[in-house]
Amino acid sequence: MKHRENWCVTNFFLLGWLQTQVSLELIVLTFWGEGCKEGRPRGPQLALLQLKCRLYVLHVIADQPLTAASRMTHQYPALSTEQKKELHDIAQRIVAPGKGILAADESVGSMAKRLNQIGVENTEENRRRYRQLLFSADERIDSCIGGVIFFHETLYQNSDDGTSFAKMIKDRGIVVGIKVDKGVVPLAGTDGETTTQGLDGLAERCAQYKKDGADFAKWRCVLKISEHTPSQLAIMENANVLARYASICQQNGIVPIVEPEILPDGDHDLKRCQYVTEKVLAAVYKALSDHHVYLEGTLLKPNMVTPGHACPSKCSSQEVAMATVTALRRTVPPAVPGVTFLSGGQSEEEASINLNAINTCPLGKPWALTFSYGRALQASALNAWRGQKENEKAATEEFIKRAEVNGLAALGKYISSGDGSGAAGQSLYVANHAY
């Protein structure tokens, strides 16, 4: 009896994983019963029974259909054909050839830092005046700005003549976007890592923003590179948060910009940044697939692959471009219409040069590769304005200049003068950047 029990246990481990596909009781009884016909199985008889058992397992695997427990989940239609077309069309308009995004979604706190640098008080009126000089730029920006990301406050502000900022932008054929996340919060038990909050009530907010003129949204997650980061927890948590956000946006007719930013803080080299960027993007697109997000109705806003700000060895724009495009080719599906890079603390000129190099990189690039710049479009304009009404025209001209330069870079047609002096050449790096 003990021999038969041991024989049964041995085969139980072989067959146990089949219990979701066939009756385990049937298998055990079949072979136990056969082994007991002439007493205990011995020697060649035992070996023959074990072989029969394995052959039977292979037969079951080949012939047994999958059950509900092991079948892949069915994708119930999340979006109608009309919804998909609308999302795809919006994304394509934003990243049309030579066009990118003006990120004017700085929070009240972030604007305080910018305005304090030029000696301007951080009031709602001063923030309105500053945004107005950007949005009132002449028709020259229509060919290089495809979308503008608003902060909540800005979406509901008006120009001096009473026209809403959102209407000013939409009337020019530029797509209105909105920042919808509510900032980063710590991930307990990690080395200073974070996730992003704001999913609660997001569906209702997206529905209202859609009614108020917004057609795309932005949500920023932040990861950092160090000896022990990013952790697997931080990568997976932020990937799933981005996927859930993207799904909610699409349900409400809003194109989600997916932004998994890897900060430039640290002394890591180019190779390390590329490795981490690939791991993060791979996790993000796995999560987007799991959440049934329609990729043709999304945009990606990643960091460029660059060495850490404190890395002693610097790289050429061609090296940055090759590492960046390689990372994207390994992780981002061709279905994604466009990649809109963040500037990540680069100077205005450096961000333009690197974007141009990315577009001239001799590798296949199935997506539009363009910009979604905040500081790298606004630094010179802010410096020229300094809160003075008489400086508004000059500030607007500085903004137009940077917009045109980056429009050319998005086509791979920008030729830098090589002059790194002035505001355009100044580093915009801020440690542990938040906005």
Automatic annotation (TrEMBL):
Signal sequence residues: 1-24
Organism for this UniProt entry: Scleropages formosus
Protein name: Fructose-bisphosphate aldolase
Pathway: Carbohydrate degradation; glycolysis; D-glyceraldehyde 3-phosphate and glycerone phosphate from D-glucose: step 4/4
Annotated family: Belongs to the class I fructose-bisphosphate aldolase family.
Enzyme class at the top of the EC tree: lyase
Single GO molecular function: fructose-bisphosphate aldolase activity
SUPFAM superfamilies listed in its UniProt record: Aldolase
